[in-house]
Design a protein that fits this description.
The protein is mainly alpha-helical and 97 residues long. It contains 3 helices and no strands.
Length: 97
């Protein structure tokens, strides 16, 4: 594969895929902080949002560290799909307060 195309694909995977996965994991982090660590609701949401930055930067770095770009893109798509499918488990609508 052309080096410029490879860098462009890695950049797209890093930015869009990293954002999608980190945005979805912020819901899971907020849920865990609220229910497991018994934090206040606002603190749990802010903590989950801040923890998702770690996920984003880890995925961003991994996008350029991995050898096979297409396998990495497939992994990001599959992982995002799993997170979307399990999103009702952490939704506040699934459990009334």
């Amino acid at each position: 594969m052309n080096n410029n195309v490879d860098i462009a694909l890695r950049s797209i995977a890093a930015i869009l895929g990293g954002y999608a996965v980190s945005a979805l994991t912020s819901f899971y982090f907020a849920f865990i902080f609220f229910h497991t660590f018994k934090q206040q609701e606002g603190v749990a949401i802010l903590s989950g949002s801040m923890a998702s930055y770690f996920v984003f930067f880890a995925l961003f770095i991994a996008s350029f560290a991995i050898k096979h770009t297409l396998k990495w893109c497939a992994f990001l798509i599959a992982f995002s799909a799993i997170l979307v499918l399990t999103l009702p488990l952490v939704s506040p609508l699934s459990r009334p307060l």
